[in-house]
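Example complex used in Figure S2.
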Amino acid sequence: MSEGDTNALRAEALESLLVERGIVRPEVVDAIIRRFEQDIGPMNGARAVARVWVDPGYRARLLADPWAAIAELGVTVIPDAPLVVVENSPTAHNVVVCTLCSCYPSGLLGLPPSWYKSPPYRSRMVREPRALLAEMGLALPADVEVRVWDSSAEMRYMVLPERPAGTDAMNEEELAALVTRDAMIGVAKAGRPREAGGGG
Amino acid sequence: MVADARRPTLDETGLSAPPRKNGELVFAEVWESRVFGLTMALHEAGAFEWEEFRQRLIAEIAAWERRHEAEWSYYACWLRAFEGLLVTKGLCAQTTVEARVRELAARPAGHDH
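Predicted assembly (313 residues):
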């Protein structure tokens, strides 16, 4: 029996026991899975970034008090942990990792991608961020400082990417479509989805 | 053990797809989604504090990194963390879980739930 089969059996065993005891209802579990698979994605984060690109006042508010600024967008996100928005510039690039597990601002970015949770990403992004970013398709010039932020239960991070060149004529909604999950983790630039791993 | 390929994914959700889609399947196999959903359901019902679960998840991931004996699976670590939490909280006894696993494993081949 493969490891996956064993895990599937254990998961099924736990669910059947919890259901029998009235601790959980299968429909509730179904609804939660649907919510995370279909309704929660990086669009809340993308909307905040696009608003920053068109409204300098909003930029200041998002950096100063991220959750309050996100509430302005009228989205329903529960501020589940203190959030820091880190801003990219021509001289500094930010990237987020969770070295211990998979802390991630899910309300803004959806569920973390599998590579974010993988042991190599979690260890290498701290040790050799520049090399790993290059492997992931983002080669940064030597004079750009790389800042690595380690997420935890106490603090979550979201990267504020730079507005891509040539987008002056775009409106806020069009701009939001350029803001990928990977850009808000910091492993890609906005408007340039990562090639490998199905990014963006 | 293959996830149902017909499950709707974020990529198929039409108009709002670009900023919404997450770039990949959220769950690779059905059991991953079930154990994730169970954990969230119990947490939302107040059965445990998220930090209690997170500390167990961190410990399971660290244990995997020390042993390296099985293929990496984030949700296998999650599953062990969740099971340990249920046992500690008295929601399921370990012996009951083992008995149920044996029972399910003994079903005739070809069953489909």
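Chain B is about 55% helix and 0% strand. The domain at 26-105 of chain B is CATH 1.10.472.20 (Cyclin A; domain 1).
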